[in-house]
Amino acid sequence: MNSILKTTPKWLLVTAAILGLWLLGHIFTAAERPFAFDARQCDAKNKGPYDGRVLYACAVNAVAEHHKSLVSADARSAFLAEWLHKFEHSAQLNTEEGTLKAITEMVLHVKGRFDFVFTPEAVAQNEVIEKGQLAGIGASVALPRAGAEQSLSQMKLPEHASPQLIAMLKMKKSPAAVISQSNPLLIIADPEVGTPAHTGGMKKGDIIFAVDDREVYGKTLDAVIGQIRGEPGSALKVTIIRGGEKKELSLVRAMVELHTTSQKRIGNVGYLRIEHFESMRVIDDVHKSLDNLCNTASSTAVESADACQSEAMIVDLRGNPGGRFDAVVVISEFFLDKGNISSVMLRDGDQIVRTDFTLSVNSLDVKEGDKSTAHQRNFGLHFPMDRKFVVLVDQYSASGAEALATILQQQRHAVVVGMQTRGKGVGQCPVSLPFGYEANFICMEYWAGGKAVDWLGVTPDVVVTQQSGTTQDLQLDMALRIATGEEVVKADPALQSEHDRQIVAERKNAYAREVEDTLKRFFN
What we know:
Elements: H1 2-7, H2 10-32, H3 52-66, H4 73-83, H5 96-109, E1 116-118, H6 120-131, E2 133-136, E3 141-142, H7 147-154, H8 163-173, E4 185-187, H9 196-200, E5 207-211, E6 214-215, H10 221-228, E7 235-242, E8 245-252, E9 254-257, E10 261-266, E11 269-274, H11 281-294, E12 312-316, H12 325-331, E13 339-348, E14 351-359, E15 363-368, E16 371-376, E17 388-393, H13 400-411, E18 415-418, E19 426-432, E20 438-448, E21 451-452, E22 462-463, H14 474-483, H15 493-522
Parallel strand pairs: 11-12, 12-17, 17-18, 18-22
Antiparallel strand pairs: 1-20, 2-9, 3-4, 4-5, 5-6, 5-7, 7-8, 10-11, 13-14, 13-20, 14-15, 15-16, 19-20, 20-21
Helix pairs in contact: 3-4, 3-5, 5-8, 7-8, 11-12, 12-13
């Protein structure tokens, strides 16, 4: 080595040294150079290859552009400075799991308790729900023990854990449950008449053993559902176990309508259950259910409310997670002749724009700023204003369900029975992300029936706790008693206001503590 150095010209050694230092400096500079975010990469048409840095940067940018809490330019600048490049020098964004964790930490810091980024699989499922139909056999299936839910329950999640945190933990710690003899795939309800499952002979309690001669044991629920779904008109064979004996059923796939309502008459009382507002088909479903309950059938939406043969109405919104707010506004027309429906405060760039929706006998009036427009009502009153009206809610009623319950409580003086609801008075705007992902970040707040809903939710006029371990529906029993004549004295407005303030304060304080605890437990 020494001989080489002695025979090498000094100018060449100096040049090599300078070049080596330049290369070394270039390497370190490249490693420290910020990720060059290009908004064009966030186009939904960008299908890959997958890059966690791009996905994360697009999610951060979506928050900055749409989140209601970042309406000022200064707030956006501070947010982007803190979060846009936070993880690019770590390996966290190399995997989907790590990227989801980074996004979750980011939305927790903006107090986005309902913000969410959907994976491509979840986006596809949401599209099925929104369309209100899918190609399959129309059977409701489930596993007795869902591994993900069991694992999550053992983690002792915060009471108000955000959907994004739950999704992250499912991906990280909760492997999907596997079908086995001790955890079989069950038909949990009799298939609806006219569906392929009903036509083919499936019944509640059947155990699915094989699909097209391929056993389902050892597979996940999603994998088997993927086998069952397919092109309308295509045939499949499902082997079921009923009463300990195997039986082969020949089915033909078809487009199956995903109904959002169910109804029944209980004496002279109409009972209407609304599962969710995710699909606009809920409007048509509610209309048909009311026709059945009132014994009025018309597609012209001009039924006479007085002709309704139900003497009272119970609307069950328990477990309803909400959905499309525009569907809630339209559905309120079935139950109100007039009144203040809602006010929506939507972020638009650097300002919050307020839109008020007011119902009159003949029109739905929409006021935005100084501009007011009268639109013809979609539907006339379908249930008389002078008859008993009860709404059922519980702690799982959220968003649009809370909006409808509040509208009916405030504007039609409906009696609300059940438990204090979740308190989601905000809405998300969907933002398409690259690689098939989608963001839903809080961009608006709504008031319903002239009352704020966020954090508070709906306070029942009659509190009834559904006792665990009992098959008796205590909340429905109370609703029936009220619907058939039992009088309810509503709380004094002053006392109610103080109660509501306490609920809001307690929930905000609890959420602040839970965010701090969550960050310590899962993001050290």
